[in-house]
Design goal:
about 750 residues; alpha/beta; Serine Threonine Protein Phosphatase 5, Tetratricopeptide repeat; Rossmann fold; six-stranded parallel β-sheet; four-stranded parallel β-sheet; 10 strands; elongated
Length: about 750
């Protein structure tokens, strides 16, 4: 039988090809369904089946390439997409290949693919958005903005285009336009957390922190648990001064992402500003363990060390930060502050000048520079520097405070008070200003105004760590003490404790049981004070009590004025046995015997003015006097001079103030700068000459050579700020009369 094949191979091939295409279309449809449902393995089998039948199937190559990328096989994905494009240059294949290349950091190649896609279809919105995003990544913000505008011209409600257009505008500094764009995005999708978040970032740039905070909180409400959004919320709370809430936000961020350096660093900043400096240092160390070259963390650690008065360590941390970022004005400014506290004044000025060279409008650097010049008694220059700061920030309370301080140093008390008044108008709760104004009133003898303002010292953040919260109320003088127990407690200065413990008998006379708490080194001596029923060293368990009052608040509570200062001395007494022991230790006296103290606690805020370089005392040591050092601690820089000086030293034998008190009983006179030694001599009723800077501390008043607090004291005052020469000359002249 003859078989005819009228259309033979061509007809059979047509039937076969159609069947293959039909099977491929069914498989491709199933593959796309599985792919869309996230069933990648099932989708892959179907794509592979299509390609087994049709190896050059452009759409299958394209979609299988996309699937491979989603499964993490980027190299295979790129290969399949390139094969798809070689078969059929489809705009979506070019676009998807560009997206893969952009994700791998090959942005220039990605842009070539996006351009190829747009040559085929210039209105493809997804490609336009991707191209704009790639340009954003290259910081080509202007071209990115143009591309996003092209996308929005095609489809005005594309959320990604709107959101990323806002990012381009923000980068270009067109902040209000960016805000407007994010508002358009939120009209498209009010629950777009990205738009809320980015809008908050722009508002924060615009220094509208409250509105920014509202945006961040809305974004977090829609999409909780995003570390970057929690961190931004924390930074905004810092801007608003809500440091405790900020710290909570940063801690939440760190709990979600423990290695998020930004959040750890910002939590350190919040802790440092909250005064929790040890914790701040710990957070800085965590940052540096993750990023050893993190300059801001090194600087923040320096700030915390500065608060701890560890000035050398702070300086070292700033130097490490500056080695990484040598032009950072803020680091240079803070380095200057550390150098100032180390009394390396010229280096401090150089550091501030370097900061200002990089940023001439850095107001804080001008302010701090003024403070150093004030320390150097270069008051005209200090005021000039402060004027520059005030040109930049005329309504900044700190500048007015510092202006008042310069006037105070210059003796222009009316101008100082006017400046302090302006500072409190700008910031009514500025504790330092109230304290300074109170000190000035007291210096002038205006106790009625002075004591009330002096109470603001209790709000000084730098002193807050010394104060303890008590359940018992603060005694203000109006409450009856009859039959009550009151705790009166020292603050931090030995001199203050020695001066104001004199009020204990008055409280006892009001019917109170008086418990006096003092530093341990004063406890034994304070047992000689009349009035207290119990004297405790700080740290010992306290008895039950009804009221409490810091010693320096007693004059305010008791309405002390010039006429009612308790002047009776001595009110402290040396132990007779210790007096005898010191007398034997010193031996027979053949010349006038004078005790001397030339320096106090170096951490005292005014120590650089009140303490004297002992070399300036050399003219006194030439006199026929037996000199006795009353210094418990001698500074390292003073040792060289004292090694050759004719001064007897008992540093190691002066165990506490009771020893010093006993030693003073064998002296004809005590000469001291304004330190605890002067107060001790006054409280013991011993003759004491006090050497005072200009201006002095408030307690020594102005323009008198006696003291209402210590009737046995004589005051020797500087006539020129910082000049001790005339003071030493006056003391030398009067010492010549001592043995006559």
């Amino acid at each position: 039988m003859e078989v005819e094949y009228p259309q033979d191979a061509s007809a059979g091939a047509t039937v076969t090809a159609a069947a293959v295409r039909q099977r491929s279309a069914a498989k491709l449809s199933r593959a796309r369904d599985w792919h869309g449902a996230g069933r990648f393995d099932d989708a892959a089998r179907e794509y592979e089946a299509v390609l087994a039948d049709e190896p050059e199937h452009a759409q299958a190559l394209h979609l299988y390439g996309v699937l491979q990328y989603q499964r993490g096989a980027a190299t295979e994905a790129e290969s399949f997409l390139r094969r798809s494009i070689s078969v059929e240059p489809h705009p979506r294949a070019h676009s998807d290949l560009g997206a893969i290349l952009a994700d791998s950091g090959r942005t220039d190649e990605a842009l070539m693919q996006f351009n190829a896609a747009l040559r085929i279809d210039s209105r493809d919105v997804q490609t336009l958005v991707r191209q704009g995003n790639a340009l954003l990544g290259l910081r080509r913000y202007g071209p990115a903005l143009e591309v996003f505008d092209r996308a929005l011209a095609v489809s005005p409600l594309v959320l990604d285009a709107l959101c990323n257009r806002g990012s381009a505008l923000r980068a270009l500094g067109r902040l209000q336009d960016a805000v407007d764009t994010y508002e358009r995005a939120l009209m498209v999708d009010p629950r777009s957390f990205e738009s809320w978040f980015n809008r908050g970032l722009v508002l924060r740039d615009l220094q509208r922190p409250l509105e920014a905070l509202q945006c961040f909180e809305r974004a977090i409400e829609i999409k909780p648990g995003i570390a970057a959004m929690l961190s931004a919320r924390g930074q905004t709370l810092v801007d608003l001064g809500r440091l405790g809430e900020a710290l909570t936000a940063f801690n939440e961020t760190i709990a979600i992402q423990p290695d998020m350096v930004e959040a750890i660093y910002n939590s350190a900043v919040a802790l440092e500003r909250l005064g929790r400096v040890e914790e701040a240092i710990g957070r800085c160390e965590r940052v540096l363990a993750l990023e050893p070259q993190h300059a801001p963390a090194l600087a923040c650690r320096g700030n915390a060390l500065l608060q701890l008065k560890r000035y050398e360590a702070a300086l070292a941390s700033y130097e490490l930060a500056l080695a990484i970022k040598p032009d950072a004005s803020e680091f240079l400014c803070n380095q200057g502050t550390a150098l100032r506290y180390l009394r390396r004044y010229e280096e401090a000025l150089a550091s501030y000048d370097a900061a200002l060279a990089h940023n001439p409008r850095f107001a804080e650097a001008w302010t701090n520079r003024s403070s150093v010049l004030q320390d150097l008694h270069r008051y005209d220059e200090a005021m000039t520097s402060l004027d520059r700061a005030m040109e930049i920030r005329p309504e900044h309370a700190t500048n007015w405070f510092n202006r008042g301080n310069v006037y105070y140093e210059l003796g222009r008390t009316d101008a100082a008070l006017a400046a302090y008044d302006r500072a409190t108008e700008l910031d009514a709760d500025y504790a330092d200003v109230h304290f300074a104004r109170g000190s000035l009133y007291l210096l002038q003898g205006d106790f009625a105004k002075g004591w009330a303002e002096y109470e603001w010292r209790l709000r000084d953040p730098s002193l807050a760590r010394y104060y303890r919260p008590f359940v018992q109320p603060l005694w203000r003088g109006s409450e009856s003490l009859d039959g009550k127990t009151i705790l009166i407690h020292a603050e931090q200065g030995f001199g203050d404790t020695l001066q104001f413990c004199r009020y204990a008998p008055q409280l006892a006379a009001l019917g109170a049981q008086v418990v006096l708490e003092v530093p341990p080194s004063l406890r034994t001596l304070m047992a000689s004070l009349q009035g207290p029923t119990q004297v405790l060293a700080r740290g010992e368990p306290l008895p039950a009590f009804d009221y409490q009052c810091p010693l320096l608040s007693l004059p305010f509570a008791l309405h002390t004025d010039m006429a009612s200062i308790p002047q009776q001395t001595p009110y402290l007494h040396a132990d007779p046995q210790r007096v005898r022991e010191w007398a034997e230790r010193l031996g027979d006296k053949r010349r006038p015997r004078v005790g001397i103290a030339w320096s106090g606690n170096p951490e005292h805020r005014n120590d650089h003015n009140r303490s004297i370089d002992p070399t300036l005392l050399a003219p006194l040591l030439e006199l026929g006097i037996e000199w006795i050092s009353l210094q418990k601690v001698v500074r390292e820089q003073d040792e060289a001079f004292l090694g050759d000086a004719r001064i007897q030293r008992f540093d190691d034998e002066l165990g506490d103030f009771a020893d010093t008190a006993a030693l003073m009983q064998s002296l004809d006179l005590v000469i001291a700068v304004d330190t605890a030694v002067a107060h001790l001599a006054g409280a013991l009723g011993r003759p004491v000459w006090v050497l005072l800077p200009n201006p002095p501390e408030w307690r020594w008043l102005l323009e008198r050579d006696d003291s209402p607090w210590y009737p046995g004291a004589r005051l020797f005052r500087q006539s020129v700020q910082g000049d001790w020469t005339s003071v030493v000359e006056a003391v030398r002249a009067d010492l010549g009369l001592l043995g006559r």
